[in-house]
Amino acid sequence: MTEVDSYPESRVRNSQPAGIGRVVDLGDVCAWNNLGRNVVFASRAFEPCAIFDETQFPDDDELSQYDLDVHAILDVPSAGVVVVLNHLGLLRAFRRSEIHIRGATRRIQPVWTRTFAEDMERVVAFGDRLVGSRPREQHAGGVLVSEPITATGDGARLDARVELETWGPVTALETVHVGGQDWTAVGGDGRVGLVPIHGGGLGRLRWEVGVDFEPAAFGWDRQLLWVAGPELGAAGIDDYEWEKLRGGGFAALDPAEGKAIVGGRFAHDLAWGNGGTAVVIAAGLVCGIGRAGEVDVYGTKDGDPRARTAALAADSLGIAHAAVVGDRILYGFNRGGYRLHTVALSAIAG
Asked: 3-class DSSP state for residue 77?
């Protein structure tokens, strides 16, 4: 286990509790959000290449926190941009060519800023469009599908339409490619469904199955669709009561019909929370991040426990945000300070 400098230095000042927001793998680079401070684009060795550290609300403590409370960092290759969506629904696009230049760390500016929808906790990109869970405060069902993302923008609100409204609130989203077709996996209220992507929109559900936990995260290993989450009943828990999210489990589903191939229960509570990623799938392992920084490891062949790393703290660090970058897991916590942790997959394979 190694601690990584998250580079929280910023020109923005506010009272945001120190912690990490989203952590993502973008292929040749990775990125993370130092809550209330900045967005860092880094090499796969976690060395910063470019940083965005500005707010539209320098004189407003609360709004400046929300401005740099990132809910999604997504690659849109067709437009040559990486987009960053914040809690307020501001969508900033950065030229991909500018975020991975090695050398001295540079401050970068968005090529355009538009408005999408606020408080979208789960957002994915397919092609040149964004698909996101509807704002949590609306308690509305389905997803929003955006108009195409382009290399340029005029500052106007991004048009979007509601799809899958009868599904109910969505708590997990993923895109997968199987059988020559692109699909969107949706999860919520103890259910998982697979929906085809057609002509810039979503088609009819291919299948829907129940799971014995609340879907919070998906993983795709090019053969099976993995889903994981805390115990059922999470929908009634307030956003700031994440410590009440307990237990849970995981399952690997056949993308053809949704049949469960592998399943398991988490032996220890993980660092679940709204918008977080407490579980990642890689190298034949299901890896759950615990509240105190420990990593619980299960095998993908049988779902059985394999290993558990030591805790990093005596008390809860909050909600985990994790991603697999190369052959390592990179993760941080929303109340764990401006620090990241990394562990090699080979070291926890058991």
From this structure: helix
List of residues 6+ apart from 227 with CB closer than 8 A: 172, 185, 187, 192, 211, 215, 217, 218, 219, 250, 251, 253
Per-residue pLDDT tens for 206-218?
A: 999 999 999 999 9
Count of CA atoms in the C-beta half-sphere (13 A) of 278: 35
Count of CA atoms in the C-beta half-sphere (13 A) of 253: 27
Q: Is the pTM of this model over 0.90?
A: yes
Which two tokens mark 135?
């704002």
Four-CA torsion 197, 199, 200, 203, nearest 10 degrees: -40
Cα–Cα distances in angstroms (integers) from residue 294 to residues 32, 190, 223, 257, 337, in the given order: 20, 26, 28, 34, 16
For 299, counting Cβ atoms within 10 Å of its Cβ (0-12 exposed, 13-18 middle, 19+ buried), the class is middle
Regarding beta strands 38-42 and 201-202, do their DSSP bridges make them parallel or antiparallel, or are they unpaired?
unpaired
User: Does residue 279 contact residue 266 with C-beta atoms inside 8 Å?
Assistant: no
How far, in Å, CA of 129 to CA of 147, rounded?
Answer: 6
Helices (H) and strands (E) in the chain, counts: 1, 30
Can you tell me which residue has the tokens 């237990």?
Answer: 247
pLDDT tens for residues 158-176? 999 999 999 999 999 999 9
Residue 200's region, left for phi above 0, alpha for psi from -120 to 50, else beta, is left
Q: Which residues contact 238 (CB under 8 A, 6 or more apart)?
A: none
What is the residue-wise DSSP string for 143-154? Answer: EEEEPPP-S---
Burial of 344 (0-12, 13-18, 19+ CB in 10 A): middle
Contact yes or no for 139/120 (Cβ under 8 A): no
pLDDT at position 43 over 80:
yes
Contacts of 136 (CB under 8 A, 6+ apart): 119, 121, 169, 239, 274
Rounded to whole angstroms, the Cα distance separating 256 from 80 reads: 32
